[in-house]
Amino acid sequence: MTESADPAATPAVFAKTPKRRSLHQGELGELVLSFYPAGHHMAEHAHDVDQRSIILSGALAEDTPSNAATPGMSHIGFKAAGVRHENRYSAQGALILALNSAPDRDVGPGWGWAPSPWASQIGAVLSAARSRGAFSEDALTDLLALMSGAEQASERPAPGWLVRVREAVRADPDGVDLQVLANEAGVHRVHLSRAYSRHFNAPISVERRRVRMGRAVQALLEDEASPAHAAFEAGFADQPHFARTLRAETGLTPRGLVRVFTDERRPAEEVTSVQDRTAAPAYRAAS
Question: Whole-model pTM?
Fold first, then answer.
């Protein structure tokens, strides 16, 4: 089993591998938290379990033989056992919580990604479980309920001009000029904001905050920066602001997130089953 990173990435990125930590294993399945570094590529593969996921930070591009999606933070996804897929991770990498469970014949060959209105509740469940020091089957039941609903869903199509706006916001959340983008698209700024919320399930101000958070998480887990330095590099006003944002979105504090992965390290080979080593283009947004 092998994986590859984006060939255009720096040598430092090549040296970084995914981090994986099993948080709980019970009757309903295994709960796993994983971080995939910037530019990482996972060649086409399939799982022998049903997998429900939520992106806690960052973004990815996922392709199957018949579908494609570019889900970002707060999107939930479902892949039935046996669905072949290929993943490329964004410039911020991706922090993903996954619940792997035994194949359910009633679900069928499902696949899909969709914005989740329950992202904050998922973070609250994680926070409550971590504060008790261990997960329970009740907590896992709550997460299963909150992470369901994308079995047959797919990312809602957005017009090309709106996708370009999202790319600009993700590339420079604090420097992008929305009035200029609205003028270029030939729409009113209020229409741009309304369309963004409708298609991407979050207003632009929230998208900006999430991009900053993704950058800070990447600095923590990929560059081993201190919480204060990660907050500064990502553009937060201060470390407490970053800590509050991370806790609200994921249920974890910066140091708590780092401890999840430093308590137990596993090689990339244990992240998933990948058969081929292939080169892949960098993460790209759908248009």
Answer: 0.79
